[in-house]
UniProtKB/TrEMBL annotation:
Boundaries of every Fibronectin type-III domain copy: 23-117, 118-217, 218-323
InterPro entries: FN3_dom (IPR003961), FN3_sf (IPR036116), Ig-like_fold (IPR013783), RTP_Phos/Ushers (IPR050713)
Superkingdom to which the source organism belongs: Eukaryota
SMART domains hit by this protein: FN3
A UniProt-annotated Pfam family: fn3
GO cellular component: membrane
Protein name: Fibronectin type-III domain-containing protein
Amino acid sequence: MASSRSVEAIEYDLYPYVSEPSPPRNLRVVEVKAREAQLSWLAPESPNGFLIGYDLLKTVGEHENEWRETVEYIGPRMKYTMKPLRPGTYYRIRIVAENGAGKSNSSNIVEFETHEEPPGPVRDLNKSSVGLTEIGLSWSKPKQPNGRSLSYYVTYKEDGQQQEMVTEEISGRSKSKLQYTLTGLKFDTTYEIKVTAKNKEGSGQPSNAIEVATLKPVPIAVQHLTNVSRSSSSFKLRWSLPEQSENILESILVRCSLTQSLTNLPNKEPKQIRLDPSTVEVLVRNLLPAAEYSCVLRSEFVQGVVKQSQISVWTKPPDLKPPTSPRVIGFTDNSVTLRLYESDDRTVG
């Protein structure tokens, strides 16, 4: 930038230069703020002629290795205020001196990190998935994080309700794209959701609010109802719960009624058992042997909806007891006469 050179520098260009100057000395950081840093240094020990000025080079970020020429011409002064800089950002700086013969080797390198400021708002807040009781969220970190380590606050409330926002913190995240899932929500409910970034200097502005509704449940009867074991006085039923039944299934009612029997034993009252909604099997006891039972399994949902499944199961016949020990009632030299007693339990075979 020749236009910024002094008249003395332009006139001095007419004189011969022996060689390039030696490097500037003792480059140091005088003061650092969030968006600027003040530098100072000493002139080269051997300027080898009139110094035209200094060029400043920098790298930005801890993992950046490419030096960029930030200021092509500072002038002959030996201090400079760099601005505007990014808050909470790591910089490396070096300078070179220049005379009419060319540029010097580099000065020492100084490093510093600008002070942090509260971050800007997060970007691109969207729903990534929706279930009955959960909402998946995704967003991008602030365009201006203004610091190294960010945490995030997800705040939400039921839409239209005059209630305090619920806040969940997500800490230690440095990725550019983030995801989080809100759980334990109400089904068929609309929520107002915001996300706020935070660093050690404080919280930024919240994102724009989005409204997301959880799914409305569709009641479905239990599935795969089957008999897995039985005896002459009991049997076990097993089933699987339908997907999305959690938090909407209130209870399961099992009712077994006698439909026919191969014995002359007196009938018993129908068996009715109320179960917890997470139950997947039940043992029905005190039944008649050799009898058919019709079992209805009622799934009772929170909306008052009832879904039913049905199965018929036979109990096994009773186990026959062996005859009692025979009684000897007579014998001869070569024979024995016995009396046999039948079991008292001669019900159905």
